[in-house]
Amino acid sequence: VNIWHWNDPLIKTQEEKQYKSEKERTYTAAYNLKDGSVIQLADSLMPDINITNSAVYAVGKSNVPYMKEITWDDYFFNFYRVDLKFGKRTKIINHTNQQVAVSPSSKYILFYEDSNWSKLDLSNLKKENLTSSIRNSFYNEEFDLPMQTPGFGVGGWLMKDTAVIIYDKYDIWMFSTKTGYKKNLTGGEGRKNLNIFRIIKLDKEADYINQYGDDLLLSSYNDFNKNSGFYSLDLKTGELKMLFDEEKKFRFIAKAKKENKILYSRESYSEFPDLWFTSNNLENTKKITNLGIQTEQFAWGSAELIEWLSDDGIKLQGALIKPGNYIVGKKYPVLIYYYELFSQRLHEFPDVIVNHRPNFALYTSNDYAIFLPDVRYQIGRPGLSALKCIMPGVQKIIDMGIADPEAIALHGHSWSGYQTAYVITQTNFFKCAIAGAPVSNMTSAYSGIRWGTGMARQFQYEKAQSRIGGSLWEKHLDYIENSPVFFADKVNTPLLIMHGDLDDAVPWYQSIELYLALRRFNKDVIFLQYKGEPHHPKTYSNKLDYSIKMKEYLDFHLKAIPAPEWIKNGVRYSE
Questions:
Q1: Are residues 57 and 132 located together in one domain of the fold?
Q2: Do 179 and 241 share a domain, yes or no?
Q3: Is residue 285, in this structure, part of any structural domain at all?
Q4: Residue 272 falls within a domain, yes or no?
Q5: How many CB atoms lie within 10 A of CB 573?
Q6: Distance between CA atoms of 181 and 131, rounded to whole angstroms?
Q7: What are the residues whose beta carbons fall under 8 Å from the beta carbon of 491, sequence distance 6 or more?
Q8: Using an 8 Å Cβ cutoff, are 193 and 220 in contact?
Q9: Which tens digit of pLDDT belongs to each residue from 452-484?
Q10: Do 77 and 115 have their domain in common?
Q11: The CA-based dihedral angle spanning residues 123, 124, 130, 132, taken in that order and rounded to the nearest 10 degrees
Q12: Which of 74, 177, 411, 535 has its CA 20 to 30 A from that of 435?
């Protein structure tokens, strides 16, 4: 028998999942070579410790006092300075769920709190706020989860811990650990041009970003037009030089160990991510693969960026993928596929694979347009937020003369499966909809289990993606108002539901609830239950089956192609 006690640190399902790793856990100790003594540094009360090159202090952390909160809140930790000679612990940070970085020599610890970065000198425990005097914000102003807003991260440390690199949204800042000197290394060019600059760590094993010289390679990504590229930054002279910046997506892959040579890929919606080889300064680039030649025989289509305003006046973007052989003035059926933010996929080559997602190339080569809209959320109103963002975007592509207003479908999986189920309770606009692994009833899902981790789902609604921002008892009306199942009587859009009955993230009974509610009102709903499958089908035969059925369903509703038997009459268990 499992006894579930109210004061257990972890609920039994999570405890069971972690049992083996906890049973085999070891705790770090220090052995003194001179006198043979052993100092216990970590233990069950403080399980984790970070030991660097320092011979004086290490940094330990523990979530033990806050394990119970994991059920409904984020992971919180206490951090400690640990004396390596005697094992003495001094608490230095209390109850934080934010980023913490230890310098390579363990002289300093950098931590984020109250929207700013602070430095703590481990020798004397003196604290210094590094960023509060700077007008630029170092927190994510667009963060829309109901928890403390995070920072943009730490770029690394300079030799001998003399300075630390911190990111704001766009630019790269250097802060001296000794003098208080600070400098915007990218000179504000990032914010000025909406370019997000980040340091590429060429040697993953190097402790310091300037360990092999003062010339840094930066990645850039334009937050507006989605272009990307590479820049160089000279730490000595401050020179920021564009190496290239294009309507492409670039990915750094690796640097040669003993040569100034790097490997990267370049892609766009219509350009396969082939490999390129070049020197560190990106001169004399050479293409070394040509796998994209396989796409030339297909009507691949083309992607463009579009903009619109949500019903609340929020500026939004989306990627519109036009069909191959697009004809100006012709109206096309449109498949809307989304999650949260998808406009960044503008220059991404689509995966040509069979899985739970629509294969873009398959649809664009069959006279479909694909629309990937961004969604911004209001806490407590996730479903309504999706509606207010998507519908004006749909009107935009109709006004552009591309979308056939009588042939538009909505497709989502998991989080966007939920949003799809919600949206069709509020509008009859769509010709049909597909919802994979959706949550349909937040009141029952709230205390469900994520069987993959054993965690309860409460945290997801109170602090994470589902964005209710409070418990079921604090915000019970929000849970009801955001649950599609309570508005099943309003649905008039044909719906295809897909769920694996071994889903370890979203309990599959959520799809059963939605199916039964719609069936009770005699609504047009079909539920594909994939036996033995998790959150999305893994078995190739099931992935292929779902891909085929997805296409058949859309073809029937959006193109009036005759329906197969499973759509018309279903399939009996005996068959």
A1: no
A2: yes
A3: no
A4: no
A5: 4
A6: 11
A7: 424, 425, 484, 518, 521, 523
A8: no
A9: 999 999 999 999 999 999 999 999 999 999 999
A10: no
A11: 160
A12: 74
**Last residue in a domain, options 97, 114, 141:** 97
What tens digit of pLDDT does each residue of 243-278 get? Answer: 989 999 999 998 888 888 889 999 999 999 999 998
Identify whether residues 226 and 150 lie together within a single domain: yes
Phi, psi of 398 (to 5 degrees): -70, -45
Q: How far is CA 433 from the centre of its chain?
A: 24
- Decide which of 97, 129, 162 is a domain's last residue: 97
**Confidence band, pLDDT 50/70/90 cuts, at residue 280:** low
pLDDT above 80 for 210: yes
Please classify residue 101 by burial: count the beta carbons closer than 10 Å to its beta carbon, then call 0-12 exposed, 13-18 middle and 19+ buried. buried
Say if 225 falls within a structural domain: yes
Average pLDDT over residues 418-438: 99
Distance CA 476, CA 470 (A): 9
The structure tokens listed for 486 are 């309570």
Instruction: Report the distance separating Cα 235 and Cα 571, nearest Å.
Output: 67
Closest CA to 391 of 317, 316, 311, 331: 311
Is 473 in the same domain as 367?
yes
Strands 449-450 and 403-413: unpaired
Structural domain contains residue 568: no
Note whether 75 and 104 are same-domain residues: no
Q: Is the pLDDT of residue 176 over 90?
A: yes
Are 202 and 321 contained in the same domain? no
Q: What average pLDDT score do residues 2-11 get?
A: 96
* pLDDT for residue 519 is more than 70: yes
What are the tokens at 241? 């030089």
The mean pLDDT value of the chain amounts to 95
Q: Sheet containing 403-413: give its strands across.
A: 302-309, 315-322, 369-373, 332-337, 403-413, 432-436, 495-500, 525-530
254 CB-near residues (< 8 Å, 6+ apart):
262, 263
Beta-bridge mates of residue 522: none
Six-digit token pair at 333? 């059926």
Q: 480 and 445 share a domain?
A: yes
Per-residue exposure over 325-350, b if at least 16 CB sit within 10 Å of its own CB, e if not: ebeeeeebbbbbbbbebbbbbbbbbb
Q: What's the CATH code of the domain at 240? A: 2.140.10.30
Secondary structure, 3-state, 255-274: ECCCCCEEEEEEECCCCCCE
81 lies in which domain range?
1-97
Question: What percentage of the chain has pLDDT greater than the value 70?
Answer: 100
User: What average pLDDT does range 410-429 have in this prediction?
Assistant: 98
Give Cβ neighbours of residue 47 (< 8 Å, ≥ 6 apart).
25, 27, 62, 64
Number of structural domains in the chain: 3
Q: Residue 474: how many CB atoms within 10 A of its CB?
A: 11
**20: helix, strand or coil:** helix
Closest alpha carbon to 87 in 63, 66, 58: 58
How far apart (Å, rounded) are the C-alpha atoms in residues 565 and 418?
A: 27
DSSP letter for 156, please: E
In 3-state terms, what secondary structure has residue 553?
Answer: helix
